[in-house]
Amino acid sequence: MSKDKTQKVSKLTELKREFKKIVWPDKMTLFKQTTAVIVISVILGAIIAIVDFVLKYGVDLLVNFG
């Protein structure tokens, strides 16, 4: 085999070896983490929407005032 092909094969075997080391979360942990991400995303989305509304209202007041 050529040197290039040997390097590709060794990289693939290293990759397979690394994938075997991965520890996947169980269903309950996955459910809890997914729920946490969704809840935090909704809360942050609501906060951003409220700040956006307040800033828009403030800018409209300043523009119409002058």
TrEMBL record:
<keyword id="KW-0811">Translocation</keyword>
<comment type="similarity">
    <text>Belongs to the SecE/SEC61-gamma family.</text>
</comment>
<keyword id="KW-0813">Transport</keyword>
<feature type="transmembrane region" description="Helical">
    <location>
        <begin position="36"/>
        <end position="55"/>
    </location>
</feature>
<comment type="subunit">
    <text>Component of the Sec protein translocase complex. Heterotrimer consisting of SecY, SecE and SecG subunits. The heterotrimers can form oligomers, although 1 heterotrimer is thought to be able to translocate proteins. Interacts with the ribosome. Interacts with SecDF, and other proteins may be involved. Interacts with SecA.</text>
</comment>
<keyword id="KW-1003">Cell membrane</keyword>
<keyword id="KW-0653">Protein transport</keyword>
<dbReference type="InterPro" id="IPR038379">
    <property type="entry name" value="SecE_sf"/>
</dbReference>
<keyword id="KW-0812">Transmembrane</keyword>
<comment type="function">
    <text>Essential subunit of the Sec protein translocation channel SecYEG. Clamps together the 2 halves of SecY. May contact the channel plug during translocation.</text>
</comment>
<dbReference type="InterPro" id="IPR001901">
    <property type="entry name" value="Translocase_SecE/Sec61-g"/>
</dbReference>
<dbReference type="InterPro" id="IPR005807">
    <property type="entry name" value="SecE_bac"/>
</dbReference>
<keyword id="KW-1133">Transmembrane helix</keyword>
<dbReference type="Pfam" id="PF00584">
    <property type="entry name" value="SecE"/>
</dbReference>
<keyword id="KW-0472">Membrane</keyword>
<protein>
    <recommendedName>
        <fullName>Protein translocase subunit SecE</fullName>
    </recommendedName>
</protein>
